[in-house]
Amino acid sequence: MPPKTRPDAVASPPSSKLFLNDYLPYNMVVSASAISQQIARIYSDRFGLTLPQWRLIINLGSRGPMAQLQIVEHSALDKIAVSRAAAALRARGFVTMEFGRSDKRFRLLELTPTGRTIYREGATLALEIEQLLVSTANISDPLSLREQLIQLQKAARALEEF
Known about the structure:
By secondary structure, the chain is mainly alpha-helical. The protein has a domain at 45-157: Arc Repressor Mutant, subunit A, CATH 1.10.10.10. It has six helices and three strands; from the N terminus they run H-H-E-H-H-E-E-H-H. It has helices at 24-47, 51-63, 68-75, 79-91, 113-136, 142-156, and strands spanning 66-67, 95-99, 107-111. A three-stranded antiparallel sheet has the order 1-3-2. Helix 2 crosses helix 5 and helix 3 (68-75) packs across helix 4 (79-91).
């Protein structure tokens, strides 16, 4: 029995083949995963931080005190990951957590002086990593690449209707 296809799908000629290494979405995922794994290793080795913890620190360091739900919106992390990262950073003395008076689920996070030091050192390291990636990959226009990536993130929403 032939595989089922959507009625509105574009039919491909039987001779066409899809090679994974030639498929742009696959290459983007593999590249992002490889970079993410290396960054996770670097931040773990240097600061003992996970990527969710580092994303939380970046947001607080660049934006100031934030509610946990705001961090969810700005970090591509879910509520549970933000909550766990916040608890771990609080236990290490990197963030303070202020609970809402009427709603105990509300938590306002702020970097401590130690957390701000980690942010400054980590931000410097992040920019060095970015520069290394850009130069090693011979990217001539990193601003254009950033804009294209943002457009791809927006375009990904169109797949929700696919």
